Amino acid sequence: MAEPAATTPATAVANGTDLVEVRGLAKYFDVSPPLLNRVLQGEPRLILKAVDGIDFVIPKGKTFSLVGESGCGKSTVARLVVGLFKPTRGHIRFDGVDMAGLTKREEIEPVRKRLQMIFQDPYASLNPRWRIGDIIAEPIRAHRLIEGKADILARVGELLTHVGLSPVDAEKFPHEFSGGQRQRISIARALASQPEFLVCDEPTSALDVSVQAQILNLMKQLQREFGLTYLFISHDLAVVYHISDYLGVMYLGRLVEWGTGRRVFGQPRHPYTRMLLDAIPDLEMTGRRRIPVAGEVPNPINPPTGCHFHPRCPFAEDRCRREAPKSLPLPEGGEVACHAVEEGRLEAG
Amino acid sequence: MAVEQRGMEVKVDAPSAGLWAHTVDGLRRFFDGDIWYSFKRSPVTILSAVITVLFMSAALFAPLVAPHDPFDLAQVDLLDSFLPPIWVEGSDPRFLLGTDDQGRDVLSTLMYGSRISLGVGFASVIFSLFLGVGLGLVSGYVGGTVDAVIMRIADVQLSFPAILIALLIDGVARGVLPRDLHGEIWFYVLVFAIGFSGWVQYARTVRGSTLVEKNKEYVQAARIIGIRPALIMLRHVLPNVMGPVLVIATIHLAIAIITEATLSFLGVGVPLTSPSLGTLVRVGQDFLFSGEWWITVFPGIALAVLVLAVNLLGDWLRDVLNPKLR
Amino acid sequence: MSAGAMSDGGKKRPLLQVEDLRIEIPNRRGTLIAVDGVSFQIDEGEVLGVVGESGAGKSLTGSAVIGLLEPPCHVAGGQILLEGRRIDSLPYEEMRRIRGREIGMVFQDPLTSLNPLYTIGRQLGETIRTHTDMGESAARRRSIELLQEVGIPAAERRIDQYPHEFSGGMRQRVVIALALAVNPRLVIADEPTTALDVSIQAQIIALLKKLCREHGAAVMLITHDMGVIAETADRVAVMYAGRIAEIGPVAEVIRNARHPYTHGLMGSIPLVGHDVTRLAQIDGAMPRLNAIPQGCAFNPRCTKAFDLCRQERPELVSTGATHAACWLYDEGGRRDGTHG
């Protein structure tokens, strides 16, 4: 796979094969108490910087994963990309079109059907009162992709077959299916408008391992069949290793490191990435000693100054406490945002 | 066992997969479901349902089943007035529950009275439901200023007793509208007054459920697909917030009947020409101390039994639909 | 399986014996059998992992041991013995004394296992004073020691704080302190790390392991996460559809699984450093409790199933290093299942 050249982020991989390009993306949430309480109790406004300026690109037909612990903003990124949230700053370009520039319904709709989302909770992602057939046909009807009852029914049957279910399942209700089957239905709905890009927000973390394997295999197979591009959100590094071409590590709203999956797992540079990799349970029982890392993720409403990771970082110095590190390209490709790496205090591990 | 029987029934399915098959399918799922099961196992609920259905059919078919038409002056004879119920000495076998001061059959006035009480009750509940559910849905789904405005109005209204609001609306309507219209539009005034006094509960409940549902992933999926907000509210959110609404509506029916009875008892509700149960109680109470107790006691009992039955149904429905108890 | 078949072999004394446990859930369509014929034992100081997918019956087994099955679930057969004494049919008061005193419990969600209205110190102190004859100030000193032991900084100050003032990882530490407060012989940990972040999981597992060793407590570790089991357990029991599919030393079960289900399960876990385009997968899903197939519960999904598997239910038999409930290892006829 083409390794991104060591250039500035703005031109990193912008060479025409990128389907999705995210630049300086930020989302702040106002989590202040109501006005009355602020006035009476003198409480300040509280701004949660869920996503605080991140850049990445996803080449066509590839999988880009975002990993991080809860509260790091990875799910917010997913919802920004599909347009469920409006960004506070920054741009999302889909196939060269800036999504923020689209305001009219007629402009949005053609883009919308090209990107879809798969959710984490298979029990909440299907309307319990709808039949499977209607759930899967919803995007078809909404975008008027196919007219005529019989043709829609045939298409629904075809989609159900694609995801390993049977066309007769269209008559059933969600509660008749297991978690894994529901996730397949979710995928069938997402595929109904023949999208090119799927945002997958922890699609397997609510599933049992044997079912997770089925869904991951299905997703990889569909990617090959339809040339899909994935943005994959997960906290499970083993799953991410298995599915990704590119990988970004997020910590408290910032992308601390990204690169190809092979590079990030093989030569992690950022201390946080190293810590995460160290925390993967040793299933092969190689006797590797895990180093449990001290500390927990701080409150994202009031994150540490400078580099957000400095209180947990064994390599932190004064500069880390004062100044947020810039994301700098690595010679072997990808980028890392760490003063210690930049100053050469921390060699490739 | 039930499971096996069910398996059999599925095979004997209707040949045409049309509306009929869906109805049959829906019915089968209902009779197989938890609600029907719980109903069968609760004698109190069955009794309440029987009483409610009896009242409703008596009310609906009053002109057909009532022994007399108390409002047909040709049938009413003043000579029959103040006859006691048949088990009391001096009664007339034609009048099961006796007659009132104008010689009208009490049983028949009860049936016609239930007709009006239930009619006003149902109409008020439906009005309330549409208003409350609509406002609650918009409030919860749209949020922001719209939400704040609707909910503050609801708060203000909640700080007055419902009966006071109904009285106020009723009074204002009586003052503003021309006198000769009263005879014609009293029904609508009453329905508006009682209905308007009850929408807040629907709105609050629906708003709460909507806040939960709108953050569920199936709603987000619909938004990503690009379904318009109004359609998402109607097709996705609404069906999933209706459970608690059904419970409130049932209990509200009992409250609406009582409110109407109270207004009529106070003399500002249903006109004397077409008395509801509440009016009958009011009219009859003048004779309570002169010995003709049946004129007021029977409408009172009827009112109490009806309201109790509907209330018990509502309680049962709440228990069945409460997912925590299942 | 007969109870007599389990010999203690003269080495460690079994602390907990579960024999032929059956848990039923009556509902209006009949009775669901959630756990069926489950037998295992835990030796003193041993960590037994219990893994399985959701609905396999692992949590119910744990709840049965500690006597906290939620009605209408109930123990319908078999017995549970703690140090040779039957505890599955004890009256509520006696069971309550055993809980906390002899069996400690760590739940999945640290927030719900702590009372939000009381300070940490009060909850710890109460547990200690209920089960020992310590006075108030002694109990408080012991509470502070415990908090220090589970790695809570500034324990003297934090003891007077409420649960909501602690982060998720810190709360789980408090729960562990609570479970170990009076040195129980056995700790049942039900998904202790599932609600926690990846980096915290490692800390909690390490802590749980270290403390149980120091306190000499045996652990029944219930989880769906094979990684946690691999790092912590001595032996592991793999549950499927309410039955034990395979039980044995953790290294054997993980590296060299005998039962086709365990084998498939291990193959379906993605591993860092293993480049495969396709994960091994077990087709289908675990049956619902009302549709457990005849014979071996796994037979419809098993690639190696033959006629006998569809007809008769296999018992646990020795496969060398492990015991598996699989006809593949039961040469000619049935043998009585014995646990090494």
Question: How is this structure best described in words?
Answer:
The complex is a heterotrimer of chains A (349), B (326) and C (340). Chain A has a domain at 9-101 and 236-342: Rossmann fold (3-Layer(aba) Sandwich), CATH 3.40.50. Helix content of chain A is 31%, strand content 20%. Chain A is built from 12 helices and 12 strands. In chain A, helix 4 (132-142) crosses helix 5 and helix 5 crosses helix 6. The longest helix of chain A has 18 residues, at 209-226. The radius of gyration of chain A is 21 Å and the shape is globular. Residues 1-14 of chain A have low confidence and may be disordered. Chain B is mainly α and 326 residues long. Chain B has one domain (57-70, 78-321): Orthogonal Bundle (MetI-like fold), CATH 1.10.3720. In chain B, helix 3 (34-40) crosses helix 14, helix 6 (106-142) packs antiparallel against helix 7 (144-158) and helix 6 runs parallel beside helix 14. The longest helix of chain B has 38 residues, at 229-266. Chain B is globular. Chain C is of the alpha/beta class. In chain C, 31% of the residues lie in helices and 23% in strands. Chain C is built from 11 helices and 12 strands. An 8-stranded mixed beta sheet of chain C has the order 6-7-8-3-9-10-12-11, with helices on both faces. In chain C, strands 2-1-4-5 form a 4-stranded antiparallel beta sheet. In chain C, helix 7 links the parallel strand 7 and strand 8. In chain C, helix 3 crosses helix 4 (136-149), helix 4 packs across helix 6 and helix 6 (168-179) packs parallel to helix 7 (198-215). The interface between A and C is large, with 42 and 45 residues.
Helix-strand layout with pairing:
The complex is a heterotrimer of chains A (349), B (326) and C (340).
Chain A: E1 18-30, H1 35-41, E2 47-59, E3 63-67, H2 74-81, E4 89-94, E5 97-98, H3 105-112, E6 115-118, H4 132-142, H5 149-162, H6 179-191, E7 197-201, H7 209-226, E8 229-234, H8 237-243, E9 246-251, E10 254-260, H9 261-266, H10 271-278, H11 318-322, E11 328-329, E12 335-336, H12 339-342
Parallel strand pairs in A: 3-8, 3-9, 6-7, 7-8
Antiparallel strand pairs in A: 1-2, 1-4, 4-5, 9-10, 10-12, 11-12
Helix pairs in contact in A: 4-5, 4-6, 5-6, 6-7
Chain B: H1 2-11, H2 19-32, H3 34-40, H4 43-60, H5 62-65, H6 106-142, H7 144-158, H8 162-176, H9 182-196, H10 199-214, H11 217-225, H12 229-266, H13 277-285, H14 294-321
Chain C: E1 14-27, E2 30-43, E3 47-51, H1 58-66, E4 74-82, E5 85-86, H2 92-101, E6 103-106, H3 120-131, H4 136-149, H5 155-158, H6 168-179, E7 186-190, H7 198-215, E8 218-223, H8 226-232, E9 235-240, E10 243-249, H9 250-255, H10 260-267, H11 307-311, E11 316-318, E12 323-325
Helix pairs in contact in C: 3-4, 4-6, 6-7
